[in-house]
Write a structure and sequence with these properties.
With 219 residues, the chain is an alpha+beta fold. The chain contains three helices and 18 strands. A hairpin with a 4-residue loop joins strand 5 and strand 6.
């Protein structure tokens, strides 16, 4: 009798709350395969992404997946040099956000923090100081930060990027654990493309929202 009553109660709850449960399911499915947001806990992408930013991730930028799985239904695009991607790194055993530096077919090297892509020496320009520079990734310009750190990997030999892989780096170039440490990123690990900051909270000021970060474009 108790089992019967429990079954009746569950069915009643389902009938009375089906709309809410459907909403929750659709929201979770959307976050799984359409769009998501990600809290950035570190400064490896400074000055582009600040600690405390909540970034919008377009999960359909490169492929459409079956909700709650990694099964791809169709490709919707290819990562491009300069994109900011969110990926679940098996090598690092955590989710990371980095900028795409090398795409399949590229050859990339770096000497004293100066990139060379496909034989072209990347240009850097700073108007005000010697820390933040504009980096031109063969037509895609963005800001990078060079800060003194005790141990840095500011040079590496030429790497040829094979099909299905990307070379990624953080914009906080001397203080980012990226492809220089974990190797190339398999494209199947990509979870989406970061396009905007939704909002940001300042942990040093009682988590007050940073008004200048709301809906700020990243690319």
């Amino acid at each position: 009798m108790k089992k019967y009553n429990l079954s009746v109660k569950i069915k009643k709850i389902g009938r009375e709350n089906w709309g809410f449960m459907l909403f929750i399911f659709l929201m979770l499915a959307s976050r799984s395969s359409i769009a998501d947001w990600y809290h950035v806990p570190s400064g490896s992408m400074l000055p582009t992404i600040e600690i405390g930013d909540r970034i919008f991730v377009d999960k359909m930028a490169y492929r459409l997946e079956v909700p709650f799985t990694d099964i791809s239904l169709m490709k919707t695009g290819e990562p491009e040099r300069g994109d900011i991607i969110v990926f679940m790194s098996k090598a690092a055993d955590q989710r990371l956000v980095k900028r795409v530096i090398g795409i399949p077919g590229d050859s990339v090297s770096m000497t004293n923090n100066q990139l060379v892509i496909n034989g072209q020496v990347i240009s850097y320009h700073s108007e005000q100081d010697k820390i933040i520079f504009d980096e031109d990734l063969l037509g895609i310009t963005h800001k990078v930060q060079f800060i003194p750190v005790p141990s840095k990997r500011d040079s590496f030999d030429n790497v040829n990027i094979p099909e299905g892989y990307l070379l990624v780096m953080g914009d906080n170039r001397n203080n980012s654990v990226d492809s220089r440490y974990y190797g190339l990123v398999p494209m199947h690990e990509i979870q989406g493309k970061a396009t905007n900051v939704l909002y940001s909270l300042d942990s040093e000021e009682y988590y007050i929202p940073k008004s200048n970060r709301f809906f700020k474009k990243l690319i």
